[in-house]
TrEMBL record:
Signal peptide coordinates: 1-21
Organism field: Pedobacter duraquae
Top-level taxon of origin: Bacteria
InterPro entries: NLP_P60_dom, Papain-like_cys_pep_sf, Peptidase_C40
Protein name per its UniProtKB record: Lipoprotein Spr
Similarity field: Belongs to the peptidase C40 family.
GO molecular function: cysteine-type peptidase activity
Membrane spanning stretches: none
Presence of the UniProt keyword Nucleotidyltransferase in the record: no
One GO process term, biological-process aspect: proteolysis
Length: 183
């Protein structure tokens, strides 16, 4: 129900913004770009700065999954866990096959500190464990998407809970992108 409301709001926002852009400018070749409108909408809804350099496919994918319940071992819209969600993003958005478990995925990355993360990088956590136990995808501005016990959400790395358990960020190694890994 909420997604239908948000979708209809997006349509209304696109219509209003398009009309405003057409009346504001005399140059008919400079009408509103639908991808730019979607970026603005997703920025507001998701609380993430989506700009012209952002991967709009990534944000659309995440938006479609927001609210999906958490289910350990799950990999569908009926329920999904953090590593399956991350694997789905890499498969559908980046056309890259990654492993299924957060610890195994960590073996595929070049570890990075928080301040070097870029959109699409991975974030790893050791939550109440000596081993990596949670994974998400970095969106920028301290935000990351992940499947949590509250379902698929966008959270802030600076939130005291996530800051406490943050282990490292990581970027998939180019050699891993070239050699797609089978499950």
């Amino acid at each position: 129900m909420i997604k239908k409301f948000l979708f209809s709001s997006l349509i209304a926002l696109c219509s209003i913004t398009s009309l405003h852009a057409q009346t504001k400018t005399k140059d008919t070749n400079n009408t509103a770009d639908p991808d730019n409108l979607a970026s603005q909408y997703l920025s507001q809804v998701m609380g993430v700065a989506v700009d012209a350099t952002s991967n709009l496919k990534l944000y659309k994918f995440i938006y479609e999954w927001i609210g999906t319940p958490y289910r350990y071992g799950g990999n569908t819209k009926k329920g999904i866990d953090c590593s399956a969600f991350t694997k789905a993003i890499y498969d559908k958005v980046f056309n890259t096959t990654i492993l299924r478990n957060s610890r195994d995925i960590f073996s595929m990355v070049n570890p990075l500190p928080k301040d070097e993360l870029k959109e699409g990088d991975l974030v790893f956590f050791k939550i109440k464990s000596a081993k990596i136990s949670h994974i998400g995808i970095f969106l920028g501005n301290g935000r990351f998407a992940h499947a949590s016990n509250r379902g698929v959400v966008i959270s802030n790395l600076n939130d005291p809970y996530y800051a406490r358990y943050f282990y490292k960020g990581g970027r998939i190694l180019d050699s891993m992108k070239d050699n797609l890994i089978e499950e």
